Model the fold of this input.
Amino acid sequence: MRWLLLVASFCSLVFAVDAAFSHEWRGKASYYTLRGKTSSGAVVSSMTAAHKTLPFGSRIRVVNLANHKSVVVTVRDRGPFVAGRVVDVTKDAAEALGFVARGVAEVSVATIN
Done:
């Protein structure tokens, strides 16, 4: 019986830790056309994002809330530095999300574990 309680406690701890490291934001996204290298020193790729706090190399899913299109991008830059914006993505990612014409979109951003 003690073994069963120990296993149940461990599983609860694992799920709690996993939830603690999962992040989700809602807000506005914009796009940028950066050439050369990002803040992390990486060369810009077509599916790059800028986020204020996530570690470089983090993979995030960005969902356009207006049309439910989504992309997975890698955080390789810092920003956005405009109030209310949660992420900047490259133009290629913005095209896949369907908001290049508008320039800004309401999005959901979630880390991928």
Notes: The helical segments are 2-20, 91-97. The beta strands are 24-32, 48-50, 59-64, 70-77, 85-90, 104-111. The chain is about 25% helix and 35% strand. The first strand starts at residue 24 and ends at 32.
